[in-house]
Design a protein that fits this description.
The structure is a single chain. Helices cover about 55% and strands about 5% of the residues. By secondary structure, the chain is mostly helical. The strands form two sheets. It has a two-stranded antiparallel sheet with strand order 1-4. The chain has a two-stranded antiparallel ribbon with strand order 2-3. A hairpin with a 5-residue loop joins strand 2 and strand 3. The protein starts with a helix and ends with a strand.
Amino acid sequence: MVGIEGRLNAGDTSAVFDLEKNLASFAGASAGVNRAPAIMGLNLRGDLPAAHALARMALSETPLSLEGGLAFQLAATHSPEFLPYFAVMLGSPNSGTRDGALMAFCQLLGPMGDAMKAHPLWRPEMSGYCPNHSPMNDRAAQEKDIRFWKQWWDSNRQEIAKTVTLPAISAPARYSVAENTGWQEVTEIPMEIRFLSLMNMSGAQPDHYHDAAGGLVEGASPGPHDPVSAQMTPSDREAYGQAIGATNAKLAAVQKGSEDMLNAARIAGTMPDAKRSKELSQQREAALKAGLDDLRNRLSPAGWQVVEHYLMQMGIGMMRAGPPK
């Protein structure tokens, strides 16, 4: 499974399909290992079939603890075809997964500053059912929000199905297990991986969007696509673009190294070099840390606050439940 993991770390979304084929074996070999950074670093916005494959795995009987972080990744595509997954996740026995699904509904449908308009079915009052942090730690509020979004989905799914193909999703059998009330270990996604997710969203252009009437339009949507720079002053926007450009150049060099490693392994008929894969992963992490520091130094306090707030409000994490007390 090292080959699949190396390709995931290298940002190769095609590895997702091989992961799906070998999910049981991969899960057995990955016990106790956090795979969140590899998954969160993938550019799913540019590969919607891979996003669907990850969503199917998240809702399988062998989930690899993907639900919590993946909901945000799917919401970042702003494609309504992923709403059925969120609707199912609302019924998870894991409170963190339910929180993630609630936030995902709001992130996918709602506006994103000036960079992303809200879905035609979005109404301002819906923001009252959008948690702004996770975990919510408020069962009554969570249940209220879940009731709203379940009713909203039941009322609007047929209308949405007129504009996109909605996958047929059913809850896994493990969702019928009573909620675990014991300890829950939360592994927060590092800020560097959140930053990489932001860069992926900013750089990738979906191959379609939905117009004011909800109709599907081929091609990238008009107007700005960056979720944070549109909220900045012109000077901060310029500085942001320079810092992002410099970071992208470093990441491109790391990506080239990853591709060379994978190609060499394919030619030789061997697994990718584990030591080299680790080195490239460390280089990617270092480039992202440096990019964040560069942004912090270049931007005004107000400009940095926009970036920091956006990264923190992602509310993404991975959860592992322990035995009930």
